[in-house]
Structures are given as C-alpha cells and as structure tokens.
C-alpha cells in the first residue's frame, strides 16, 4: 500500500484517491512510486507551513520549489558534477513538480479547484508578443555526457577483471543501446543467437514500444560463456541475468545491484561520471558518427519521433544487423572486443592443456 510507504498520503484523501486512479489505470509501478514520492514531499511541506493543499496558491508551490533548490545534497562529499553539491538538479526538479501539477489537474477535473497553481510553459509560433510563457521552473536542455576514448578504455580495462556476467551485461548495454531496466529485464528467450539479435519487450521499455536490435560477434562469444555458466545456477528459461550472492542466489538481478556494479567499475577506473546510461549515450553517438540516418538511430534506440509526434519509425532487426556488420565494423565491435579477450585466452589455454 502506498499509504504504508508514505504515511502522509493517508492524511490526504484526495491525494490517495488520485494515486489509486493512476494505479488502476495500469501505470508502471516505478511511475506510481515516483509520483507518490514527489506528491508526498509536497504534502509534507504543506503540513509544515500550515497550508491546505487543496487551496494552496502559486506562492506556496514556489516556496516548495525554493525548498527543493536549497536542499543539501544527499551525496555529501560524493559529488560528481559542479552543480550537484546542493539542491536538486534541474531534471529532478521537473520530476518532482510533475505529480504536483497532475494532482491539481485532477482537482480541476473534479471541480475542487478552478486553476492549477503549478501551470505549464507554452509557446505560440509566429506571435512576437504574448506568445510565450515560462513554466514555474525553467527547463535546462543539457547534452548527455559520454566518455572520451581514453575514459572508455579505462572502464574496459577495469571491466575485463569482472565476472563474465558483468562483462556480457556491459557489452550488451553498449551494443544494443539498452536502458538499465531493459537490460536487467532481459529473459533467456529474448535472445536469438542464430541471428545475433535481442528482443526488447514493450513492457520493459520507457515508451512501451517493442524493438529488435543486434549485438556484435564479440558479445556473442561472451553470451555463450555466460549461458554455460548460468546453467550451473539455474536451467529455467526465465530472467537472463541472475544474482550469485549467497542471500539471493539464482534470483533475478535487480536494477540496484547492476547500478552498484557500474558504480564500482566507474570509481575504480577513475571515471566517476560513468553510469548505467552512459553506454547507451555512447552507442547512439557512435552510430551518428558513422553516418546512420536519423530514423534508423531512432528505431535502434526505441525513441519516439519528434517530427511525427505519435508515429513510431520501424526498421526490422535484420536490417539493423546488416547495418551493424557493414557500418560499425571498426568502431562498434572494437568497443566490446576487449571484454571477450579473456574468454578467448581462457579457451586457448584449456585447449593447450587438453592437448
């Protein structure tokens, strides 16, 4: 129950009702949790200052924003960017305001309020005056960080000492430009080793759009080794990546465990900016550098087309395999080949010993 995790929701009937509606509509659990967390923080602020949330004004919401921007960073000394030492990042501020804005939209629809104190920014093309209104918090559009060639080499050098599971996960994350949840949610039957493709199921994606993407031959070598190792843990054709800890042995690997693995590799490699999403950004940048057409990259990444709004642009997995084999031979495969070197060396050693 959401009220058990965030007790403040139990004290505000309308807020709990709104979240139950979203839950009944089948929204993803992580989305519901994010909405519950953001709205709970706002409701707690209202209680501290003695404001009734149902009648709060824009000034009260602005006070909430000021509180978020001045909040001490939970990272403490573990700061990874210049603006991360205090307050919340711009993207996090936007995330915190989304549930508050949607909650007030709900109150307007229910006839409880006549206006939304959060408001939305808007722009009307062609109108020089009166055609633009800023949102409550200006939205910053930053380019994603990607590692340099040397930083990527440093990460790979550290990753080569990792168990085969971690190496194949890192290779797949780059090869197929996978998000963290897409990677950790892979099942054994999502793989097609004969064509070196992997199916990303719609329910695991950010925008619920299924796609088929290829992986390189080097990653295929790692996958073969990992599948043989996985059979010693479980022969069930369930989740592909399994935990090997004593407490959760043979259980599905969690998002948080994978994040800890990547964080450990990044710190050891002295590339603290490197995260579970960096491989995706690097892969898509490499595709663009090699001259892939925009619609092909969008399909590969599972992006929604900004040009046609609700349209999705599709390419078959086979077409993407051909492009990978011809256009990315010197860059894409090289970036993960180092991860498979240990496997090839170990195989040669076993053959020599057997001889």
UniProtKB/TrEMBL annotation:
Span of domain Tyr recombinase: 142-325
DNA-binding listed as a keyword: yes
Name of this chain's protein: Tyrosine-type recombinase/integrase
Keyword DNA-binding: yes
Organism for this UniProt entry: Dactylosporangium cerinum
Gene3D superfamilies according to UniProt: 1.10.150.130, Intergrase catalytic core (1.10.443.10)
UniProt keyword terms in alphabetical order: DNA integration, DNA recombination, DNA-binding
Superkingdom classification of source: Bacteria
UniProt domain Core-binding (CB): residue ranges: 13-108
Pfam families for this protein: Phage_int_SAM_1, Phage_integrase
């Amino acid at each position: 129950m959401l009220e058990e995790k965030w007790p403040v929701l139990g004290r505000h009937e309308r807020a709990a009702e709104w979240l139950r509606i979203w839950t009944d509509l089948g929204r993803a659990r992580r989305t519901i949790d994010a909405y519950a967390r953001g709205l709970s923080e706002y409701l707690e602020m209202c209680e501290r200052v003695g404001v009734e949330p149902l009648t709060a004004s824009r000034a009260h919401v602005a006070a909430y924003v000021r509180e978020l921007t001045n909040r001490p960073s939970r990272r403490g000394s573990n700061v990874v960017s210049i603006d991360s030492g205090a307050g919340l990042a711009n993207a996090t501020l936007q995330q915190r305001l989304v549930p508050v804005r949607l909650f007030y939209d709900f109150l307007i629809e229910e006839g409880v309020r006549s206006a939304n104190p959060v408001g939305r920014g808007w722009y009307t093309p062609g109108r020089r005056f009166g055609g633009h209104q800023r949102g409550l918090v200006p939205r910053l559009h930053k380019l994603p960080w990607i590692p340099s060639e040397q930083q990527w080499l440093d990460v790979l050098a550290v990753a080569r000492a990792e168990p085969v599971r971690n190496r194949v996960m890192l290779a797949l994350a780059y090869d197929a430009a996978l998000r963290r949840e897409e990677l950790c949610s892979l099942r054994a039957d999502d793989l097609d080793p004969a064509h070196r493709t992997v199916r990303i199921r719609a329910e695991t994606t950010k925008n619920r759009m299924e796609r088929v993407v290829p992986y390189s031959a080097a990653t295929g070598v790692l996958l073969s080794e990992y599948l043989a190792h996985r059979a010693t843990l479980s022969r069930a054709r369930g989740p592909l990546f399994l935990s090997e800890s004593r407490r959760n042995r043979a259980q599905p690997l969690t998002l948080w465990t994978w994040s800890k693995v990547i964080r450990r590799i990044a710190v050891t490699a002295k590339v603290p900016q490197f995260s579970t999403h960096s491989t995706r950004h690097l892969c898509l940048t490499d595709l663009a550098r090699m001259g892939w057409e925009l619609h092909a990259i969008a399909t590969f990444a599972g992006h929604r087309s900004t040009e046609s709004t609700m349209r999705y642009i599709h390419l078959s997995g086979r077409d993407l395999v051909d492009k990978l084999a011809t256009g990315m031979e010197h860059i894409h495969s090289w970036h993960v080949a180092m991860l498979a070197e240990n496997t090839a060396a170990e195989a040669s050693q076993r053959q020599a010993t057997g001889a």
